[in-house]
Amino acid sequence: MSHITFDSVKISYKTSDGEVEAVGDFSAEIQKGEFIAIVGPSGCGKSSVLSAADGLLKPAAGNVYVSGEPVTGPGHGRAMVFQDASLMPWRSVESNVAFGLELRGVGKAERLRTARELVKLVGLEGRERSRPSQLSGGMRQRVGIARALAVDPEILLMDEPFGALDAQTRESMGMELLRIWENDRKTVLFVTHGIDEAILLADRVLVMSAGPRSRIVEDITIDLPRPRTREVRVGREFQVYRSRLSNLLFGEQDARTTEPATR
Amino acid sequence: MRTPKRKDAGAPLTTSRAGSQESAVKVLTGCISIVVVLVAWQVSASSGLVDASYTSSPLEIVKAAAELVTSGELAQNLPTTLFEFSIGYALAVVIGVPLGMLMGWRLRVRQVFEPLLYALYVTPSLALFPIFVLVWGIGTTSKIAIVFVDVLATVVINAMAGVQETDARTLRMAHAFGAGQMAQFWKIIAPSAMPTTVAGLRLGVGRGVITVIVAELYGGVVGLGVMISAYGSSFNVPPLIVLALLAGLFGLIVGSLLRRIERSVFRWE
Amino acid sequence: MAWTSVISTVRADDQGKIRERVYAVVLGGGLIFIGAVAWQLAVMAGAVDEFLTSSPVLVIEGVVKQIVSGELLVNIGISGLEFIVAFAVASVFGISLGLLMGRLRYVKYAIEPYVWLLYSSPVIALFPLIVLIFGLGAPSVVFIAIMLAIVPLIVNAMQGVDNVDPGLIKVVESFGGNELQLLRKVVLPASFPTIMAGVRLGMGRAVVGVVVGELFAGQGGIGYSIDKYASELNTTQVFSSVLIVIVAGLVLNFIARALERASSGWRTDL
Questions:
Q1: What are the CA-CA distances from residue A74 to residues A52, A65, A185, A201, B155 (Å)?
Q2: Cα–Cα distances in angstroms (integers) from residue B247 to residues A179, A221, B78, B155, C125, in the given order
Q3: Which of C25, C123, C129, C156 to mutate to test the interface with B (most CBs of B within 10 A)?
Q4: Which end of chain C lies in a sparser environment, N or C, as judged by fewer CB atoms within 10 Å?
Q5: Could you please report the per-residue DSSP string of chain A?
């Protein structure tokens, strides 16, 4: 049985001009331990798909199943990493990381121990007591990842987690994420608009069409060896995937200019 | 105020309520709520559920309002109250705005007046009213004085804050372009202080209206507050509520009118 | 620590700060001092009638008299108690209502009109009715003070909730937190600074409510004293009582500001 099943998920929302069907018919099967990237033009509803998988958003039609059970609300097996980290500015790093455990009623000593381990895992040792305002954007997102990992979810949902970072930080965060993921290979749904990022990280890339009524137009398996390193990028295979995705997303003529090549 | 970030499609949760639709819901809910309260009030009073001699009822209040208008009583008293308020308010604006701006601009001026104004700001100015009555009697002058004092602190403090909020970079830019002190004041400081200053003027209206009425209530010859006092001592509740509502609505309407003007004039804020 | 060592550690920019502080005290105090001296001289020279205008020396004597006779203590006790009760009730109800209005928009839309009406209405105008219901004295004064103080408490709590980062609310939902946890762990700490600013404003308005309430409906307290002495044409004691009100206002404002500043450190513990 697949770990996550999207069964004809439709997502719609109200605007002043009436109801808009953002996501038309989203169906996918995701296996346990797979790293899935969802890419698509902005406004295609890829983040909504993620929210539906978390249970934050109820699909207008269709269902999301996790291990065969329909998703009715946020559940313990899943954890979300948010686009802008969404940390509590009044809490220290470790207290932010422990937040999910705190909500689930884990005792203070235990949740702080777990939090410190994870702070170490994401490479922020020594910054346990810092406030989010004292951290850089990349560091803040590390805290966001640690917070999600702290509740030890089976599924990690990541909503453009590195979208706000500069290109260089973005790449090193990606490599860092892979390093952490290699430990226990959780199932990951990773929403991004970066093609390179998607290829570098994922086992499969789901490409969505532009909204409204967006759907999956292509399901590309990325057959690159793991563990991956930065060097993957210069390989010929990477470039093939890259131009294929560019064509899908931006059309043939723009393929060379839309995203700067690796420097 | 900060607007939540809206990017891509976390959107279904946040943009689901379109602005105009939402404000219609707001007005509608407010109106329903007012109607429900009025009906409940009327029913509970006329059914004898509560003692209507205490609470009066909406119909009685409307009747009392009509009477106050037709008997000419309101027309007799309202002008005095408006006069006292307007003069006191105008004096406070004419003195307060320049003083506040000067205090914001010049440190030494601020240091001279700040303690006094601060004391005035944190004390209930109506506590001074008995003194004014001792000095000027219960006529118009003491009311003008109390409105002036009450509004002055608000006006000065906002004008001062407005000047202090002037962007230092803009000032440096003006200085670099060779603007002298006076040019800096008139072309940069005064305009950029306007929104906050005008907000102070708006707050002053609300405070001033309440103050003039309460002062008249304490001791006066003619005016809304004097009427309130008369009806109050004979426990004639409906006109009492009419007059209190009238004052409240006046403050509310002038306040929101000024806020609307502020919004359209200072659109860059 | 020896004084010399204190002085020797003063750096140049500190010296500038100290000079500024001296200026502030000398200039600000100067205006008040000159005013007081002019007033005193005018009285001594017979330019104004001492019975009508009193004088700074008499006013200070009046304050001392109130202290010695114990009148001040009694008045502060009465007014202080009224203030505390009114402020506590207004805080509990105002903040709860504001939080509720911030979380449930229909409640907000239904109640907001009354809050603004309360804000712009002269509550004191209803004092005959209030006295009829609550009786003359402390209960009426407390009621008036509550009505005045509650407005900024409601409004600020509401705005505080309105301005909570929606991302943080989503975090709580995503981790499966309930409404109570959302309130305790995100809404309250995030809106805390705004709520505390409301507490400061509410304190100020509670003072106004107590003093003005006593002026009209009191049977004791500082505001009542002002009214009593005014009706006896005792100018000096009116001034003395007003001076006490001013000092009380300054002290309370100082406390409120200190509270507001200190509170930024408490958010973590909520």
A1: 9, 12, 21, 25, 51
A2: 69, 73, 10, 21, 9
A3: C129
A4: N
A5: --SEEEEEEEEEEEETTEEEEEEEEEEEEE-TT-EEEEE--TTSSHHHHHHHHHTSS--SEEEEEETTEEP-S--TTEEEE-TT----TTS-HHHHHTHHHHHTT--HHHHHHHHHHHHHHTT-TT-TT--GGGS-HHHHHHHHHHHHHHT--SEEEEESTTTTS-HHHHHHHHHHHHHHHHHH--EEEEEES-HHHHHHH-SEEEEEPPSSSEEEEEEEE----SS--GGGGGSHHHHHHHHHHHHHHH-GGGTTTSSPPP-
Report how far residue A198's alpha carbon sits from residue A160's, in angstroms, rounded to the nearest whole number: 11
Which residues, at least 6 apart from A185, have a Cβ–Cβ distance to it below 8 Å?
Answer: A33, A35
Task: Answer whether 0.80 is exceeded by the pTM.
Answer: yes
pLDDT greater than 50 at residue C8: no
Say what the alpha-carbon torsion angle C60, C62, C63, C64 is, to the nearest 10 degrees.
90
Which residues in chain C have Cβ-Cβ distances shorter than 8 Å to B112?
27-28, 30-31
* CA–CA dist C40, C61 (Å, integer): 13
Main-chain phi, psi angles of A218, to 5 degrees: -155, 140
Letter for the amino acid at B196?
T
Q: Which amino acid does the sequence have at C23?
A: Y
Rounded-to-integer distance, Cα C141 and Cα A101, Å:
48
A253 token code pair = 């003529």
A touches which chains (3+ CB pairs under 8 A)?
A: B, C
Angle at C198 between CA C197 and CA C201, to 5 degrees: 90
Residue range A123-142, pLDDT digits in tens: 899 999 999 999 998 999 99
Kindly state the average pLDDT of the residues A187-194: 93
d(CA B79, CA C191): 44
The answer to whether C268 contacts chain A (CB < 8 Å) is yes
ipTM over 0.90: no
Q: Are A14 and A204 in contact (CB under 8 A)?
A: no
- Give bridge partners of residue A12 from the DSSP assignment: A21
Q: How far is B1 from chain C (nearest CA, A)?
A: 7
In terms of Cα–Cα distance, which of A143, A140, A146, A188 is closest to A164? A140
**Amino acid identity for residue C16 in this structure:** G
Written as six digits, the tokens of B142 are 């003491």
* Interface membership of A183 toward B (CB under 8 Å): no
Return the residue of A nearest to B12 by Cα: A13
The CA distance from A102 to A124, in Å, is: 20
Residue with tokens 């991004």, as numbered in its chain: A192
Say yes or no: C267 contacts chain A, CB-CB below 8 A: yes
User: Which residues in chain A touch residue C173, judged by CB atoms under 8 angstroms apart?
Assistant: 56, 74
Instruction: Parse chain B into domains and list their residue ranges.
Output: 57-265
Confidence of residue C9 (pLDDT cuts 50, 70, 90): very low
Q: How far is it, in rounded angstroms, from Cα B51 to Cα B39?
A: 16
Q: Is the pLDDT of residue A6 over 90?
A: yes
Residue B131 amino acid letter: I
Q: What does CATH list as the number for B57-265?
A: 1.10.3720.10
pLDDT of C12: 57
Tokens at C139, concatenated: 């209960």
